[in-house]
Amino acid sequence: MLDKLEPLPADTILGLAAACRADPNPDKVDLTVGIYMDEHGVCPVFDAVRQAQRDLIAQETTKAYMPPAGDEAFNRGMQRLVLGEDSAVLRDGRVGSVQAPGGCGALRIGAEIIYAASRDARVWVSDPTWPVHFPLLGSVGLSFETYRYYNPASHGVDFDGMVEDLKHAVPGDVVLLHGCCHNPCGADLSLEQWGVIADMAQQQGFTPFIDIAYQGLGDGLDQDAAGLRLLVERLPEVIIAASCSKNMGLYRERAGLAMFICRNEANAQALVSQALVAARRIYSMPPAHGALLAGRVLADDELALSWRTELESMCVRINGLRRDLRQKLEASSGQDFGFIEREKGMFSFLGLTAKQTLRLRDEFSVYMLDSSRINVAGVNARNMDYLAAAVAAVL
Ligand code: LMR
Question: Which one of 27, 105, 115, 161 is separated from 56 by 20 to 30 angstroms, measured CA to CA?
Answer without folding.
Answer: 105
